[in-house]
UniProtKB/TrEMBL annotation:
This is LVIVD repeat-containing protein. It holds the Pfam family LVIVD. Keywords: Signal. Residues 1-21 form the signal peptide. It comes from Flagellimonas aequoris. The keyword Nucleotide-binding does not apply. The keyword Signal applies. It comes from the Bacteria. InterPro entries: LVIVD.
Amino acid sequence: MKKTILLLFSLNFLLFLSCTNDDSDDRYAEYIVARPLVMSKAEFDASVTIIAPKPIEESGKVYAYGNYIFINDKYRGIHVINNSNPQQPVKVGFINIPGNIDISIKNDYLFADSMMDLVVLDISNIDNIQLVNRLEDVLYNNVFFPMEADLFEYEDYDYDTEIVVGWETTTERRLKSEVEQRNGGFVLMDGLAAAESSDSGTGQGGSLARFKIVDQYLYAVDSHNINVFDISNLDNPQDLEDVYAGFDIETIFNQGNYLFLGSMRGMYIYDITSPATPTLVSEFEHGTACDPVVVDGDYAYVTLRGGNWCGATESGLFIVDLTNIESPVLAESYPLDGPYGLGIKDEKLFVCDGASGLKVYDKTDIHDLQELNHFEDIVTFDVIPLDSHLIMVGDGVLYQYEYLNNNIKLLSQIGLN
């Protein structure tokens, strides 16, 4: 009897606690908190290594080259996947590159960012990848913050002996008043820097890429500049004069003699007739939002994502008329939920609408897009339309789709965890 009374008392006490905890207190809310991933400067200088396949921690951008797919693990490195058989892709290795976000490949040479450094690797033998060069501090504005974060915490960071190579984010319950006191919801880190057509022998990146190789030049955008490299000597790139391009530059795309830069403020178009010195042709402003851009013929397709640092509250697809390249104008817009990357194959437009899945449209009439497919219940990030099939990366998963006449069909998927 005493045990029964004690048990009832314990249950009632726990029920009382559950009814009075912070879950019902409107002074609190859920916030995304970012903390820096740090390592010593000495470790960073010797950090590029090739190891066996490992689980992915946060899938980033995707890149296709020959029979291989390279998937960025944000701030950590690159997962290498043998895709000789797209129905059964196989993970074969991991390239450890702290601070890595982007890559581009030409003739078996892989160019990758490692925070402010540019590293060059020989991948001619995928089983014996070799580091052949490292250009230090040539990407000095290449420090990016996770756009989804509400708070940044870095109290334990030692500026003198350590370097920030990336970020990890968690969702935590915090006092609203605490967040409001921190510069409107975020804390900038003092002491840190401020934040497609394909050539022969060159791989293909997605619409979220910041690296793009055109002929003998590598263009790498950071938050402010186009960093230009002469790669005519592939194992020894030459760092040329940077071209200032504005603020909040996010992505780069190439068509013909033009570079199309996506930024939080708009789309900038640069002429690369003189490839070492890109010159501004025009810009299209769309307000403040995170956006990648792809171009097909006389139209640019731009996805805008609002929320957090992206600024805008509305998300959507903008289609911009480039008939007069010096004066681009908005031709049409469509609402979306929270888009990231996009791609085009013939008359099909593929849009990664974040947690709302992959959406496929017929773009024959840009004023009346027709939805062909909607793959729901998956998280989507970026997509590459290859000649033979479609590659898409989501939340720790690589998807591949087969093209059909009027739609697409899942060919394979492989978990990267």
